[in-house]
Amino acid sequence: MANRSKTDECENRVVHLDKLDAVKGKMPDEDTLLDVAELFKVFGDSTRTRILSALSIEELCVCDISVLLNMTVSAVSHQLRILRQTKIVKSRRAGKEIYYSLDDEHISQLYKLALEHLKEE
Q1: What's the pTM value of the predicted model, to 2 decimals?
Q2: Burial of 104 (0-12, 13-18, 19+ CB in 10 A)
Q3: Sign, Cα dihedral of 99, 47, 55, 67
């Protein structure tokens, strides 16, 4: 077990019930929190974040993404399927081509916020 510093612990061991009640009343239910955790798991894969990076700039087809990321079409398709299932990307058909883009502005904002956070000093 790792040693914990004294700054990680409360010195008085006082529980602030009013704060706990306020927080409990505002927290999402457990199912929603599990969905949030799943969303972040999907973002946690470097291949998928590379795809998100590309799609944050331009709508692309599978072939374009595979060349850009130096991956097989099959590997890209697999990752896009996961991203589609979690509603992170969407697709549209134009003739025989299927183009992928970020699902909505929320996904774009999540990606941009992550980048901004990493650029902070």
Answers
A1: 0.80
A2: exposed
A3: negative
The per-residue pLDDT for range 51-110, each reduced to its tens digit, is 999 999 999 999 999 999 999 999 999 999 999 999 999 999 999 999 999 999 999 999
CA 79/CA 85 separation, integer angstroms: 10
Q: How many residues does the chain have?
A: 121
Phi, psi of 52 (to 5 degrees): -60, -40
Main-chain phi, psi angles of 28, to 5 degrees: -65, 160
3-class state of residue 9 by DSSP: coil
> Quick one: tokens of 35?
């969905």
Using the structure block, give the residue that is written with the tokens 């009013």.
18
- Nearest one of 76, 83, 85, 121 to 102, comparing CA atoms: 83
